[in-house]
Amino acid sequence: MNKTPVENQLFALALQARKNAYVPYSRFAVGAAVESGSGRLYAGCNVENVSYPVGTCAEAGAIAAMIAAGDKLIRRILITADSPELITPCGACLQRIKEFSSEHTEILLADTENIRRTLTVKDLLPFAFNNEDLKND
Ligand code: THU
Known about the structure:
single chain; alpha+beta; Cytidine Deaminase, domain 2; 4 helices; 5 strands; 23% strand; binds tetrahydrodeoxyuridine
């Protein structure tokens, strides 16, 4: 698939972050990169822990970097891992992405060579818990 310039940049950033993934337990390195509403780019990798549930996903790292820098909207998020199967964000990360997404947000799923699929948040989390669900009047 041909990549746009921003897709190329996201892919390169995610691959670079993936190299730094701390994965002594699963040995499954993941990289993620976000393009924010302002056009700035942020990357993250998974960071595991000997106390397994404490580990964090690549998406969580990239989103945290975006929030720390003052951006609030995910325009695109690309996730890359080395797997013959398509890697999709876990349920918790879909909810994290949802928090900062719009209906136009794209989730780009990649192996280490190619972007293989582009989906929306609604594709992957069709009945999401959202702000409206908090209203009780
Ligand atoms: N992981 C991610 O970082 N992102 C995903 O989208 C799927 C899973 C991580 C969590 C854990 O460190 C390793 O991959 C194996 O599950």
